[in-house]
Write a structure and sequence with these properties.
Blueprint lengths: L7 H4 L12 H11 L6 E7 L6 E9 L5 E9 L6 E7 L14 H4 L3 E5 L39 H17 L4 E11 L1 H12 L5 E5 L6 H7 L3 H11 L4 H12 L3 H6 L5 E6 L7 H9 L11 E6 L8 H18 L1
Parallel strand pairs: 4-5, 4-6, 6-7, 7-8, 8-9
Antiparallel strand pairs: 1-2, 2-3, 3-5
Helix pairs in contact: 4-5
GO molecular function, one term: carboxylic ester hydrolase activity
Pfam families: AXE1
Organism: Streptomyces pactum
């Protein structure tokens, strides 16, 4: 697939006008307050994985509305002191899988929480373990369109709240340095990490690649791939303007650029310039407006891969993430 979005020189300065409702902050303040009561942790049980250099716990925490959300929590075996933590969010249609699947951050010396995606896990990987009790809301079968016509019923209102509560959960687990918690994710996970950066002001860092839900209106005009394709297919059979405007209104409450504007934490971005699943203009819009409403100027950097699509920098980019976050630890 040849490059299809804006030229690189234009991407570097791409700062579209924000697409956010006047009550954006009130919406999220109220949503998070409704789910903040009580201890975030429900349980944490050690599991046998067959790995000798890693210890893992099967964690359940309270997410949106107090719903139980599953996660894997892992630490390097034998670590005696509290460790900085990385909360990782999985991609669209993926669940938490098996505990030995994602060990990069543990091997690098971090405590690691991998959050399950409620109501997902049936598209690839090794599945998920968190049902969504609210799947009866109007909409199509895919997560991207569940409750699409009502921001209060939308799937991503629940999933983003889960992602915020995952940070509270990891801070309640033993052996975690509560003051050094970072969020990381790719694709849908990148969109969730960016939302967390905008809603949790004291993150240590955020690492985002190929983020979903950034520059949503433009993405819907550019691509029919992935989750955006589910949205266009849903609206293609609901041809009245009311449905379209209701969908746009709902999506404005989960727009990643709006979360990015409110973020405080240092940020590391990655993007493939031939990405037709999450068009690069969305990542650049979020990057270029990152932190502008926070009252600080958080350090940020972005790495572009001109000949790559949704896979972006892949392992090369992970190597850059490891080095960057290690540098943040040393300077922080």
């Amino acid at each position: 697939m040849p490059a299809f979005d804006l030229p690189p020189a234009e991407l570097r300065h791409h700062r579209p006008a924000p697409d956010e409702p006047d009550d954006f902050d009130d919406f999220w303040r109220g949503t998070l307050a409704d789910s903040a009561a009580g201890d975030p942790l429900v349980s944490a049980h050690p599991v046998e994985t067959g790995l000798r250099l890693t210890r893992t716990w099967d964690v359940t925490f309270r997410g949106f509305g107090g719903d139980p959300v599953r996660a894997w929590f892992s630490r390097p075996a034998g670590a005696l002191r509290p460790l900085p933590a990385v909360v990782e969010y999985a991609g669209y249609g993926r669940g938490r899988g098996l505990p030995h699947e994602r060990l990069t951050w543990v091997a690098a010396g971090y405590a690691h929480l991998l959050m399950d995606n409620r109501g997902q896990g049936d598209r690839y990987g090794c599945g998920g373990d968190t049902p969504d009790p609210h799947t009866g809301v109007p909409g199509g079968p895919g997560p991207a369109v569940r409750g699409l016509l009502d921001p209060y019923a939308y799937h991503y209102r629940r999933l983003i709240t889960d992602a915020v509560r995952a940070v509270a959960a990891v801070r309640a687990l033993p052996g975690v340095d509560e003051g050094h918690v970072s969020a990381v994710g790719n694709s849908q996970g990148g969109g969730l990490a960016l939302a967390v950066a905008g809603l949790v002001p004291d993150l240590a860092a955020v690492l985002v690649s190929a983020p979903l839900l950034c520059g949503v209106r433009r993405a819907l005009d550019l691509t029919d791939a992935g989750p955006y394709g589910e949205i266009t297919a849903y609206l293609s059979v609901r041809r009245d303007d009311h449905a379209v405007q209701a969908a746009y209104r709902t999506l404005s409450y989960v727009e990643g650029v709006s979360f990015a504007r409110r973020a405080h934490a240092p940020a590391h971005f990655g993007v493939g310039l031939r990405d037709t699943v999450c068009p690069p203009s969305g990542a650049y819009a979020a990057f270029n407006r990152y932190g502008e409403l926070s009252g600080v100027k958080p350090p940020k950097e972005i790495h572009a891969y001109p000949f790559n699509g949704h896979e972006g920098g892949d392992a090369v980019h992970v190597r850059r993430q490891l080095g960057w976050l290690a540098g943040m630890r040393e300077t922080g």
